[in-house]
Specification:
Elements: H1 18-22, E1 41-45, E2 48-58, H2 73-85, E3 95-104, E4 114-124, E5 127-135, E6 141-151, H3 155-158
Antiparallel strand pairs: 1-2, 2-4, 3-6, 4-5, 5-6
Length: about 170
């Protein structure tokens, strides 16, 4: 088994809290030295508080490259997933990705500030439906996606050895 980080950085407390677990998130975790360290602005709409948005500016380098000069498609999918996951908190819910769909409309350039914007569409029981776009500063959409997130109980993430897979 190969390790991607030193063992001393890969330790989790015996009974971690959700925040301790999230600190190592590849998308937004401040404690992940190889992560994207994304910072999102949550925008609850006072006129429509049930449909919040989350946005972030991203400006990636060759570390995230695919084709020369462009962002790797897997990183774009990660950006989309991360943005949509941020919508769960203003809804007061803990949820995990069940399904992710991304349409890559145009290549996304490296070294360019891009805007990532996600919005909550609707809820059906434990199912949360979100949408996302990655855009150039001109407003041109480079990628568009949708996600299905399933609301889970926090105890499934913090219990030692637990693994929640039923939906």
């Amino acid at each position: 088994m190969s390790r991607h980080i030193p063992a001393h950085l890969d330790r989790t407390p015996e009974h971690p809290t959700i925040d301790e677990l999230a600190a190592h998130c590849f998308g937004c975790g401040p404690a992940n030295p190889q992560g994207l360290h994304l910072h999102f602005t949550l925008n609850p709409d006072p006129a429509d508080p049930e449909h919040p948005t989350a946005s972030a500016t991203v400006n990636l380098t060759e570390l995230h490259g695919g084709p020369p000069g462009y962002i790797h498609g897997g990183i774009i999918a990660t950006l989309c997933d991360e943005a949509m996951s941020k919508l769960n908190r203003p809804l007061g819910l803990l949820a995990m990705t069940r399904h992710l769909e991304v349409d890559f409309l145009r290549p996304a350039p490296l070294h360019t500030p891009l805007t990532l914007t996600a919005r909550h569409l609707r809820r059906e029981g434990r199912k949360l439906f979100h949408a996302v776009e990655l855009q150039l500063p001109t407003g041109e959409t480079l990628a568009r996606g949708q996600g299905l997130f399933i609301v889970i109980d926090e105890r499934h993430l913090t219990a030692p050895g637990s693994n929640q897979t039923n939906t």
